[in-house]
Amino acid sequence: MKASLRTAGLALLFLAVSLAAALLAAVLLRLPAADLPLVALLLAAAGGVGGLLALLLVRPAVLGWLGGVRAQLAGASLIGSLLLLGMVLAGARAMFLSGHDLSLLLTMLVFAAILSVGFGLLCAKMLADRIERVREGAARIAAGDLEPGLPVEGHDEVAGLAEDFNRMAQALGAAAGREREMEKARRDLIAAVSHDLRTPLASTRALIEAVADGVAENPEADARYLSSARKELSHLSRLVDDLFELARIDAGGLQLTLQESSLHDLISDTIASFQPQADNRGVRLVGEVSGGVDPVLANPSRLQRVLHNLLSNALRHTPADGTVALRAAPHGDGVRVEVTDTGEGIAPEDLPRVFERSFRAESSRVRPEEGGAPGAGLGLAIARGLIEAHGGTMDVESDLGRGSRFCFTLRRA
């Protein structure tokens, strides 16, 4: 109802503007002033009746009976020609034209009306062909064929529609690519986690069965078996914790409570906890904290987890006589923390994937020694997710054969 009233209002406004323009033209053409009222009445009557008829016929519900765009545009052209013909007839009666002049005038109007309809059909055919090509392209996109783009012809609304379809196809293609990557990452994660769960489970089962069957000949052997089983269970517990943490990060349900924290103390505690492991491996462990970094906005336990994962990864890939350094320094309005090592580095083709779930380079496919990070390839993904939950970013740089550097940022309190 509101749309119909708005259309009627626009039609009346258009009629008023057209009438004013016609009267202005009559004045400029020096039409006698005495004829102006009659001309205005004639134009208003003919335009009002013709306009009302056009409003009734040009409605989509009426034009829809004619068929496609070709028939609709041809019908609109015909309606316009009939409107012009009616106005000329009304004017001819008012001017008392002779029969000869009226016949000649009508003949010319019929010819012009047929030409108008023909031009309308020609334009409608070109427009309908373009619309049909867009429809065919949309059908290909709906069928999953996202590669070929739609032809963009001209600069009108149909061309804009084709561009919109092309952008939609590109977005759908990118989304499909991401979905395939996520599906592959999910399969890889399940395979890696299944392997890392199966190995400690099998070891624990064998150790417990050995103790239960009395294979050990003395209490010392029993204690050694149980200690090994405890380590395997501890590894399983860390792996389950990692999976739970990663699931919360992926689901967006990880809400951290940040507080003023001492980054210097966190780094000192982390260095102290990893010093025995570094000594056993023959790796030099260095910690450096510049002045002015404290306090930072952080969740201490989760930030400790990040440092733990990064140092575990660095130690695992650093040979004896190598160096692992943990440094922190002011960086703009925040703090930059980096963990560098002198290990084997990361291959250039693997560098973009180091933060993916379950990704492990070929050199790290073996299970880590006891005391290292869990072997399912989740540590770096979790570390990056935790840093992003802190409002920071994490990046990696590496030189194959010379070492790697993992950097992340934190906000200063």
Describe the 3D structure.
This protein is of the alpha+beta class and 413 residues long. The protein has ten helices and seven strands. The chain has helices at 2-28, 36-57, 60-63, 69-95, 99-142, 157-212, 219-250, 263-281, 300-316, 379-389, and strands at 259-261, 284-289, 296-298, 323-331, 334-341, 394-399, 403-411. Mean pLDDT is 77; it is low at 362-374.
In a few lines, what is going on in this structure?
With 413 residues, the chain is an alpha+beta fold.
Give the class from helix and strand content and strand pairing: alpha+beta
Order of helices and strands: HHHHHHHEHEEHEEHEE
What is the helix tally? 10
Which regions are unreliable across 5 or more consecutive residues at pLDDT < 50? Answer: 362-374
The whole-number mean of residue pLDDT values reads: 77
Question: What is the rounded distance between the termini?
Answer: 59 Å
Largest sheet: 5 strands, mixed
Q: What is the radius of gyration?
A: 40 Å
Question: Strand portion, in percent?
Answer: 5-15%
**Lateral arrangement of strands in the main beta sheet:** 2-4-5-7-6
From the spread of the alpha carbons, the general shape counts as elongated
Helix content: 55-70%
Brief descriptors of the model:
two-stranded antiparallel ribbon; 7 strands; 413 residues; 5-stranded mixed sheet; alpha+beta; 10 helices; single chain
